[in-house]
Amino acid sequence: MIKYNHTNPKLHHNGVEKFAWMFLGIMSVLFLYPMFIAVMVSVSSEESIRMNGFQMIPDSFSLEAYKLLIVHYGNSIARALLLTIGTGILQPILSIILTMCMAYPLSQPDFKGRDFWRKFLVVTMLFSGGIVPSYILRTRYLHLQNNILIYLIPGVGAWGVFLFRTFFVNIDKSMVESAKIDGASNFQVLWKIMLPLTKPLVAMNFFNGFLGRWNDINTCLYYIRDRKLYTVQYLLQEMLRSADETKALIEAGLSPGMDTIQIPVESTRYALAVIGALPVFLLFPFIQKYYAKGIMIGSTKG
Amino acid sequence: MKKSKQARRVSDNWKTQFGYYLMIIVPVLLIFVFHYIPMAGVYMAFIDYKPAKGILGSEFIGLLNFKQFFTSIDFVRVFRNTLCYNVANIALVNIFAGYLFALLLYEIKSKVANKIFHTCMLLPAFLSWTVVSAALLLILHPDSGMLNSLLEALGMHPVSWYQEKEYWPYIIMIAWIYKDAGMASIYYYSALLNIDTELFDAANLDGAGRIRQIWYISLPATSKVLCITLISQLGSILSGGISPFYELTFNNGVLYETTQVLGTYLYNGIGGGRFSFSAAVGLTQSIVGLILVLTVNTVIKKIDPESAMF
Question: What is the per-residue pLDDT across B174-227, written as a single tens digit (0 to 9) for each?
Fold first, then answer.
């Protein structure tokens, strides 16, 4: 009764798989190539760049750029790092806490205003006043221009709230009920029951939030003119603009009394770009782990 | 006896509701301030806003700002660019490249290789556009860029890439695929993982080749995800911020003809102090966005009620 095939199924399979290996292999190399070159340029000597352009393996190596960034420009870099990392951690935490506080009542059947507040959120998904009214509000009325608080405005939005609400709704109701009968307050239920059960979602939101803040230059573009409040990415953006900009920024960051120095423009830019990309590489294993849990819930490959 | 029980229940209920409102008060205030107040701020589009006079003190000029925008030479350019880039983004990045990556990743049976490939493709998604623009500068730098070195080695004339507008649609789309295709592939890939592998075994026994299996099993199984992605992206066809256009081109005026979009146009407007005019541009964008999102949601509701936004 067993039916045998004339053709070997594996043969067909192999052709496509071989193509996939080749294609994805080439793509992966192409995808990593610019990152690799950027690292190499950051350790090239300025002379070899001037003579031969950007190379995979430079003629002469030099750590001048990193030395410059750490020794001469260290204060500005340290300030930018502290600011970006500090606000990058605090803002997502605030956002997640407030998002959960909004999402939890919306997931509880005994909350009376549920429908109204749901609509209150839906409206923000449909229509926005646009960037100009927000800009005027923040600069003229809230005085957030050149103010560190601009980085800390919590991002509570409809998408995030509805995502958390969906997770909360799916949590076993009897657990919440019995906790409430035992006299637990809403905050206790949220902290002790909801939080542990939505850990992957919280982690994913946190990493996304942190990298979102780390990678953002829009806030600086619109609201920050004070060099002391530049983020790392904005500093990089300004340096990439032109060689003069790079020199001006670094010279402005030199401590008084220090002589003007020879600035290796290209390698300094890429040294800063490497610093700008570093958190992504450091956090990637965690991101991948929680992305797998957060997005691909319920799907596993055998 | 009965009455007091009822009274207690009422007060219990009141307490519960109060507890809930205590939780949502801060988020509600934030949403009110940062979403609802700017909505009222669209009034700015109908006045000749002068910072010295304030919003209420400025002169009301009706639709003059809109008229000025629709009749300006920028209008066609900015709308065309925004529309074309967003359509190209959906077609090339989200559908073509994302789907291709997902299909090919699914073919690779080695788990380790799978993870390595996916990591390489996903990494750029988490890098900032500024870092990507630094990488782009490595290739396109007029003096030391790798592309010009290659052209010179081949005996051709180097090109000042940052001065030549006709190349930029291609450059931006390649950069966009580099950054976002890996992320787009995740959704399709997880849809592929949900396919019952017995289907493939059965097809194998029937002698169907792998290409046919992809055509008759993989594609239909993921068509819903594909459809939903496509439609929901159509809703944001006129939206979008200033990335990647600002970062990749450094907002270079020479390239505006092919690279300026609504986001960067609004940024320039605010920088130039043309607040009311920019508010009118922004309001136009918001109204089109509203119509698109409502349409898209109605369509999705018909296809797959679970995926509808509201």
Answer: 999 999 999 889 888 888 888 888 888 888 888 888 888 888 888 888 888 888
Question: What is the per-residue DSSP string for B41-99?
Answer: GGGGGGEE--TTTHHHHSEE-TTHHHHHHHHSHHHHHHHHHHHHHHHHIIIIIIIIIHH
Which of B68, B36, B48 has its CA nearest to residue B284?
B68
Q: Using CB atoms, which residue from A153, A157, A211 is nearest to B126?
A: A211
Q: What mean pLDDT comes out for the span A78-90?
A: 95
**What percent of chain A lies above the pLDDT cut of 70?**
89
pLDDT of A6: 40
Domain boundary among the residues B60, B75, B91 is at: B60
Q: How many angstroms separate the CA atoms of A248 and A242, rounded?
A: 10
- A 62-91 residues with CB below 8 A of B? none
Domain range spanning residue B172? 64-307
What's the CA gap between B121 and B115, in Å, rounded?
10
Token readout for A4 is 């045998």
Residue A68, amino acid: L
Q: For residue B296, what pLDDT is reported? A: 87
Please give the Cα distance from B107 to A20 (Å, whole number).
Answer: 7
A212 touches chain B (CB under 8 A): no
Number of domains chain B is built from: 2
| Nearest residue of A to residue B183, measured between CA atoms | A291
Q: Which of A7, A126, A240 sits opposite B207 (nearest CB)?
A: A7
Same domain, B36 and B159: no
* pLDDT above 60 for A294: no
Using CA atoms, how far apart are residues A24 and B111, in angstroms rounded to an integer? 14
Say how many C-beta atoms besides its own lie within 10 A of residue B198's C-beta.
8
Chain B positions touching A296 (Cβ under 8 A) are 186, 190, 193
Q: Is the domain of B41 the same as that of B127?
A: no
Q: For chain A, which residues make up each domain, given as ranges?
A: 64-295
Residue B71 CB neighbour total at 10 angstroms: 8
Cβ distance A185 to B214 less than 8 Å, yes or no, reads: no
Is residue B161 located within the same domain as residue B263?
Answer: yes
Which residues in chain B touch residue A136, judged by CB atoms under 8 angstroms apart? 41, 44, 55, 275
> Does A38 sit within 8 Å of B135, measured CB to CB?
yes
Q: Report how far apart, in Å, the C-alpha atoms of A223 and of each of A138, A227, B30, B41 are.
A: 9, 12, 19, 18
- Residue A98 to residue B267, Cβ atoms within 8 A: no
Q: Which two tokens stand for residue B259?
A: 């690279």
Alpha-carbon distance of B80 to B172, in angstroms, equals: 15
Place of tokens 């399979």: A13
What top-level class would CATH report for the domain A64-295?
mainly alpha
What distance, in Å, lies between the first and last C-alpha atoms of chain B?
A: 45
Q: Which of A13, A53, A270 comes nearest B210 by C-beta?
A: A13
Residues 76-95 of B with CB under 8 A from A: none
Q: Select from A110, A131, A105 the least CA-distant residue to A120.
A: A105
Domain containing B236 — which CATH number? 1.10.3720.10
B244 and B145: one domain? yes
